[in-house]
Amino acid sequence: MGAAVFGGMLWFGLLLSSRVDSVVPAIVLAIAGAYAGWLVGVIVFSAVRGAGTKEEQG
Known about the structure:
Helix content is about 80%, strand content about 0%. By secondary structure, it is an all-alpha fold. The longest helix has 28 residues, at about 25-50.
C-alpha cells in the first residue's frame, strides 16, 4: 500500500516536472510520497496488529 502511494506521488511529480521544465517538483513529491507511504504503512500495520487483541477490563 505504501509503495502505491509513493509511486503515485512520484508519477505526479514527474508529470508536473515535464510541464515546468524543472526536476524540483519530482524530488519534492517523491519525498512527500515516501513519507505518506510510510505513514499509510504504519496506520495499516497498527490496524491489522491491533485488530485481534482485546483487553479485558475488570
